[in-house]
Design brief:
heterodimer; A: alpha/beta; Rossmann fold; 6-stranded mixed beta sheet; 3-stranded mixed beta sheet; about 10% strand; B: mainly alpha; two-stranded parallel ribbon; 12 helices; about 70% helix
């Protein structure tokens, strides 16, 4: 465990103490002493952790030849707490940006993509910090012709030429940023890109078929598979890397985004992710046996997984919605050479798990789960759907059950009272203050009474949600439109002060969820994302029992509470109308009679639900893709919020 | 080696460069001079540091950048002491006449900044070693036609990196080696800053990325066709 205060076992010596003070002064901060851990067996000689702690392995620093550069070592690690990532949330956001860049480049092409995202994230922070520290040292020392200590330290750290192109690009961009001639930190030319031998896949054998027509279709299907495999092979092989150009663009990115690590991280990732693909060869370690990890900093020490709040903050960051594009493409567009990006998909072909990017985060829930594998999966899924739904959420309320008072008035201006007016309307105090001598019709006054139109009374909504979690529905982990729609409804109702009850159902006896209505968002989302993956049988027994006795169904002040039901399912919802459970064939119809609204939001391309739903009095909203879910929810919310005027005043007035 | 070989690519600048057609016209004027880089290196003499020249560029008076000021007249004032130096003076006037003929604000301001570098000797004191004037026409052409075609002179003043590029470009085509640098270092740093070369490389890289997008699109189509074929088969 990291101690809160500096190590007493290995106190700083005078030289280290002076360097520590100087490094703090450089950043203008005061931290508790760093911890010295000789022989820590970490990948490098320095690292950091949260809560803010700097750790250095002095023996490893000496071994790497940087024992004379403690100010820069300390300043670098302090920079992680001051500049980048500076907070845990930012560190997660940086990793998320790198993961998005990797996904856009081709997640399948990069070995260990999540570990690579962490590596890129640390490398990006390192570059921002090193450039800033060198600039601050140059400004402080102001000695012409003498390089700042940070640059001199890098002269030592880069003594072993890089074997991979990625690290060459990084070192070359340092040369550009520090105005050093080519060859100062790395060879003038980049290492050659390794040649990968690609084995061609054997042609696909068509499936056996009985008839000529079937045989022709099987051959066409096999040809389509072969075409896809060939296209994938070409896509995997044709990875664009231009070390010289990319080094210049990287330097520009570091300069431009020096104060905004999260925004710049995506461009950084898009620049370097191609070098991580199998086609581009090694990851570019410096290659010197026994030397520190590239960059000299081991990054963040085994941080705890993100909490639910941190996840929500990270996933909700609007900077994580920028379209991933290579900086060369951005510059070409700026010069008018290329068209605007098509959508948020970036350069990533649509994956078989469709819909991930369409939800607006540019990163699917499955990939997010993998990235945060150490975190609670329920929290990751909930945070993902909450942030995906957030832009669609509006407080959902409905007109109050009690009609507005119509006899309320407010006093208006003083007017002259004439003898035709009601005597009771005479305002004596106003009359006498006008003139002590009362002359009817002349000095008499009355106070006009104006009708008051009080603001429309509104009340919160109580929504009963049933979600189909059978195998035919997309699982929440794969990006489910139904779950997104449900999340939008839950958040809208809760934000309007209402309550929800969520029931997840699948085959017979497979029913999950709370029995009561709740305002607990976590509980509602946990029920919503519960997934059985079995058959589809709508729990008509539970449904019927819940709405059999509605006498005690009262809201506040004894008013009758409106009852709204939403069912999220697919064409397997025919069971709701008795298919397969004939003994409950009339349950849906009978329940509908005591409901104010009953809406089915279904993934049903053929609209098979239209007839039975109409017969039972349920509204149907069809959704085919993720993109349809928000619109369906918006229509439903509008209906709940503004029921037709003829039916608006009486609770239960819209009941079947 | 002629500079032409490095200038075959597009001229889309990294920031607010002149419009492509105007930029192309300026660049063509430079290429028409057919200057030899090898000849410049062969005649190199020691010059002031790039930082000192860059600093002077940053101090250019606004009057020099005013489009109403005629550069030929300005040169007459600035290079007055060079009158009577025969061919070089004539060449300077020729270049500045060309600058005026282009009607390009970028070229005019580029030439004006180059003139300011010499004029600064009188205003701010000479640099050590002083800026050479033997190749004034070549340096003026490099600044007005070559560099101004890809980077707007306003950026030479506002952006540190572009200022360094302008200083190095001026020193190189003036035939002076920046103080404290050997030929390899100076060559490397000039190449590193050279927007003309970089734009060419960027244009090529952008084409490759466009091709990658096309490959990606074909893969998406292949996947869609496969899904459709499978659905039909089932």
């Amino acid at each position: 465990m990291t101690p809160l205060f500096g190590s007493r076992e290995h106190p700083l010596d005078d030289r280290q103490r002076m360097a520590w003070e100087s490094a703090q002064a450089l950043w203008g901060v005061h931290l508790h002493d760093p911890e010295l851990k000789p022989g820590a067996h970490m990948p490098s000689f320095a690292w950091f952790s949260f809560p803010p702690q700097v750790v250095v392995d002095p023996s490893e620093a000496e071994r790497n030849g940087v024992g004379a550069f403690y100010e820069s070592i300390f300043a670098h690690e302090i920079g992680h707490h001051v500049l980048s990532p500076s907070t845990r949330v930012t560190s997660f956001a940086l990793a998320q940006q790198m993961a998005r860049a990797i996904a856009a480049t081709g997640r399948d092409l990069i070995p260990e993509p999540d570990a690579k995202a962490q590596m890129l994230s640390n490398l990006w922070s390192d570059m921002l910090i090193n450039v800033r520290v060198a600039a601050m040292q140059r400004q402080r020392d102001g000695m012409p012709g003498v390089d700042p200590e940070m640059i001199r330290m890098w002269g030592v750290l880069s003594s072993v030429p890089p074997t991979g192109q990625l690290w060459w690009v990084v070192l070359r961009s340092y040369e550009i940023l520090w105005s050093k001639p080519a060859g100062f930190l790395c060879p003038v030319s980049p290492p050659p890109r390794p040649v990968k031998r690609v084995e061609r896949a054997a042609p696909t054998t068509p499936q056996a078929a009985d008839t000529d027509a079937q045989r022709a279709k099987a051959v066409a299907a096999a040809a389509a598979v072969d075409a896809r495999i060939a296209a994938e092979a070409q896509w995997a092989e044709f990875v664009v890397t231009n070390p010289d150009v990319d080094a210049g663009l990287l330097a520009e990115t570091v300069r431009t985004f020096g104060d905004d690590p999260v925004s710049g991280a995506l461009r950084f990732g898009m620049l370097l992710a191609p070098y991580l693909t199998a086609a581009a060869g090694s990851t570019g370690q410096s290659g010197g046996a026994g030397r520190a990890i590239d960059g000299g900093c081991a990054g963040q020490e085994d941080g705890a997984p993100p909490s639910a709040g941190e996840l929500e903050e990270v996933l909700g960051d609007p900077r994580l919605r920028e379209v991933p594009e290579h900086p060369a493409v951005i510059k070409a567009r700026g010069a008018g050479g290329m068209a605007a990006p098509p959508a948020e998909n970036g350069m990533q072909p649509s994956a078989p798990r469709a819909g991930a990017d369409a939800m607006g985060q540019g990163y699917g829930v499955a990939e997010t789960l993998e990235l945060y594998s150490a975190a609670d999966p329920n929290e990751v899924i909930a945070a993902w759907y909450i942030t995906a739904a957030k832009r669609w959420v509006k407080p959902l309320t409905q007109p109050a059950s009690r009609p507005n008072s119509v006899d309320e008035t407010i006093p208006g201006a003083l007017e002259q009272w004439s003898i035709d007016d009601e005597i009771a309307s005479l305002d004596w105090s106003a009359t006498l203050s006008t003139n002590p001598t009362v002359i009817p019709g002349v000095t008499t006054r009355l106070r006009a009474v104006l009708p008051d139109a009080p603001p429309e009374q509104r009340e919160s909504v109580r929504l009963d949600i049933y979600i189909d979690s059978s195998g035919s529905m997309r699982a929440p982990r794969a990006g489910s439109p139904a779950v997104l729609a449900g999340t939008i409804l839950i958040l809208s109702v809760l934000r309007g002060g209402g309550r929800v009850r969520v029931t997840s159902f699948s085959g017979p006896g497979q029913v999950a969820g709370g029995a009561r209505f709740t305002r607990d968002r976590a509980e509602a989302l946990r029920d919503l994302t519960f997934y059985f993956g079995g058959g589809t049988t709508f729990p008509l027994d539970v449904f019927g029992v819940r709405y059999r006795d509605t006498r005690g169904d009262k809201g506040s002040h004894g008013a009758v509470t409106r009852r709204h039901v939403v069912v999220l399912s697919d064409d397997g919802l025919r069971s709701m109308f008795g298919t397969g459970q004939e003994e409950y064939a009339r349950t849906a119809l009978e329940v509908r009679r005591v409901l104010d609204s009953g809406t089915l939001i279904v993934e049903d391309r053929r609209h098979q639900m239209a007839e039975p739903a109409a017969a039972a009095g349920y509204d149907v909203e069809y959704i085919d893709t993720m993109d349809d879910a928000p619109a369906a929810c918006a229509r439903l919310a509008r209906r709940l919020a503004e029921p037709r005027a003829s039916r608006r005043l009486t609770p239960g007035g819209r009941r079947g | 080696m002629a500079d032409r070989s490095k200038a075959q690519h597009g001229t889309s600048g990294p920031a607010s460069a002149p419009a492509p057609s105007a930029a192309e016209a300026l660049l063509q004027r430079w290429l028409a001079r057919n200057e030899s880089i090898d000849a410049v290196w062969a005649g190199m003499v020691p010059g002031p540091s790039a930082d000192a020249v860059a600093s002077r560029i940053g101090a250019v008076p606004k009057t020099f950048l005013d489009d109403r000021v005629r550069v030929v007249a300005l040169a007459g004032d600035v290079l007055e002491s060079d009158r009577g130096r025969g061919q070089e003076s004539t060449d300077v006037v020729t270049v500045l006449d060309e600058v005026a003929a282009t009607g390009s604000s970028a070229a005019r301001r580029g030439a004006a900044i180059a003139l300011w570098l010499w004029a600064g000797d009188e205003e701010l004191g000479p640099l050590a070693p002083p800026l050479a004037r033997e190749h004034a026409a070549r340096a003026l052409a490099a600044m007005a036609f070559r560099l101004a075609s890809v980077v707007d002179p306003a950026e030479w003043v506002s952006d540190a990196e572009r200022r360094d590029e302008a200083a190095r470009t001026f020193l190189f085509w003036s035939g002076q080696l920046p103080a404290g640098e050997d030929r390899e270092t100076a060559s490397s740093l000039l190449t590193m800053r050279d927007s003309l070369q970089r734009n060419g490389a960027l244009a090529a890289a952008a084409e490759e990325h466009a091709h990658r997008l096309e490959v990606t699109r074909k893969l998406q189509e292949a996947r869609a066709r496969e899904a459709a074929a499978r659905y039909t088969h089932e």
